Amino acid sequence: MKISYHQLKYVLVAFSILAINACSSLPKTDLTAISVKQASQAQAWEMKGKLAVRTPQDKFSTNLYWLHTPQQDQLTLTTMLGTTVLSLTSTATGAKLDVDGKTYHDSNPEILLQRVAGWRFPIKRLPLWVTGQTSAEDIVLQQYNDGSPKHVSTEYNQTLWALWYLSWQQQSGAKLPKQLKVEQSELKLKIQINHWQALAEK
C-alpha cells in the first residue's frame, strides 16, 4: 500500500486538528551535547528544522527532527503542534517506518520509503549533505568564497541529483548549512536547519 503525497499532506493536517491537546517528546538518548570545530568530528548529532516537499502532484511542509548516531538514524516529521505523523528509524539490520497509525518494515530504508510513500530518496547520503559534507561521488560545481560548497551534482541509484546550499551558519561550534535544496527531476526538497547539536556518549 502506497501513501500518496496528497494523503501524507492530509495526514499532517488531520493530526494538527485532532491533536490540539496532544504533545510529543523527542527520543531519549544517553548522549550529551559537545562542541566541535567541524561537523565531520561529530559521530552523533541531532537536528531540528523544517522540510518542504514538492512534486508534480503535490506539495507540503512539516517540522523535521533527526537523531543521527553510529548505530541508527531516526527521522521524525511533526505538525506545528509537535505531534508525530511520520517516523523513520534505520539501523544496520533494517528500517521501520511509522505513518498514519501503521508500521512498515524493510531491510533497506530507501526501498521502504519508496514502497510506502512512493518516492525514493538517497537517505544514506543525507547525513553528509545536511552537514555540508560531500562524498567521493559528489561533484562540487560551485563554491562560496570561503570554499564552502554552493552547488553540488551527484548520481545515486542511476538518478541525477542536484544540491544547492542557499546559506550557512555556525552551530555547535561548526559551520553548517542553514538552508539547502535537494532536487531531481520530479522531487524537490528544501531543508531549513534551525538547530544542530553535536553529541557524544556520556
From TrEMBL:
Record's keyword terms, sorted: Cell outer membrane, Chaperone, Lipoprotein, Membrane, Palmitate, Protein transport, Signal, Transport
Compartments, as annotated in UniProt: Cell outer membrane
InterPro entries documented for this protein: LolA/LolB/LppX, OM_lipoprot_LolB
Cellular component per GO, a single term: cell outer membrane
GO biological process, one term: protein transport
Highest taxon above the source species: Bacteria
Membrane topology listed for this record: Lipid-anchor
UniProt-listed CDD domains: LolB
Signal sequence extent: 1-25
Similarity comment text for this entry: Belongs to the LolB family.
NCBIfam families: lolB
HAMAP family attached to this UniProt entry: LolB (MF_00233)
Subunit structure: Monomer.
Functional summary from the UniProt entry: Plays a critical role in the incorporation of lipoproteins in the outer membrane after they are released by the LolA protein.
Protein name (record): Outer-membrane lipoprotein LolB
Species the sequence originates in: Parashewanella spongiae
Taxon lineage: Bacteria, Pseudomonadati, Pseudomonadota, Gammaproteobacteria, Alteromonadales
